[in-house]
Amino acid sequence: MNRALAARAILIAGTELLILTGPARAQQPAARPVPNDNPPDWVYADTNLVDHAAWISGTVVKNVVILAFKPGTTFERQAAIVRMVRGTIVQHDSTLGADGFLMIRVASHPDACAVKQAVELLEHVAEVEMATPEVLLPFTEDGRTPPRPSRITHKGSTAACPAGTGLLR
Description:
By secondary structure, the chain is α+β, with helices and mostly antiparallel strands. It has one domain: Alpha-Beta Plaits, CATH 3.30.70.80. The protein contains three helices and six strands; from the N terminus they run H-E-E-H-E-E-H-E-E. Strands 1, 2, 3, 4, 5 and 6 form a six-stranded mixed β-sheet that branches. A hairpin with a 7-residue loop joins strand 1 and strand 2. The longest helix is centred in the first third of the chain and has 19 residues, at about 5-20.
């Protein structure tokens, strides 16, 4: 294992330990969120979308991660993982079953770099089944590609996102 990967593994393990043993710092409900299959209106607001940031092709929500856990992950552990990225649960979608998936609000960044950092961190957590940005699909239900949405107010820059997890503070 090279030094960078070893350092990253140590960072992730240390972060998990701090989250599990330290006081809760994120705003989390005391109980499992009630399923809500409709996201809040602000998620898809014009000002919350970024088009073709340097790290991803397409249009993404600049402060939202979609998160699913492996079966058997306790709610307490789920909440600790959400706190790990300083996230807040804004939707619990149950359309794919009782566990469904969570929509997590993370720090906002003009190029969705905090989303990138959160996804990269969450991909290394054993209980996470899936962590992905909220991507707007570029096609309609009938399979045709509609014209590019004109409502997107921010074009992504060509600048690379900062390394690490500094945007998740």
